[in-house]
Amino acid sequence: MVSLITSSKAQKKIAENMRDLRLEKGFTQEGLSKRSGVSLSSLRKFEQKGAISLESFFKLAMVLGNLERFIEATKPSGNNFSSIDDVLNNKENKKPERGWRK
C-alpha cells in the first residue's frame, strides 16, 4: 500500500490525538497513568515523542474508550492498492462501455 506519511510522523500524530482524547475525557496524566497501569514516565514520553510499547498503548486506548477503533482499523479491506496503476486498472472503478450492439 502506498503511504504518504512517515512512521515517525504517524507516531507523533497518534500521540497528539491520544493526548487530545485524554484532555477531552478530563484525565490528567497522573490520573490516566493510575487507571491504565502505564507508568507516568511512559505516558509522558508517549505524549512528547510518540514512543510507547504496544501493550501500554492498548492499556491507554482501553481506558480512553477507543481500543475497538484501533482493532477495526487493522482489519483487511477489500481494496489494497500498491500503486496508482492498480487504482486505475481496478474493475470496480470502470464505467460500463456504451456502444451499438451487433
TrEMBL record:
Domain HTH cro/C1-type stretches: 18-70
Biased composition (Basic and acidic residues): 88-102
InterPro entries xrefs: Cro/C1-type_HTH, Lambda_DNA-bd_dom_sf
Record-linked PROSITE patterns: HTH_CROC1
SUPFAM superfamilies the UniProt entry points to: lambda repressor-like DNA-binding domains
Pfam families in the cross-refs: HTH_3
CDD domains, sorted: HTH_XRE (cd00093)
GO molecular function: DNA binding
Gene3D superfamilies membership: lambda repressor-like DNA-binding domains (1.10.260.40)
Region Disordered, residue ranges: 75-102
UniProt name for this protein: XRE family transcriptional regulator
Organism: Flavobacterium beibuense F44-8
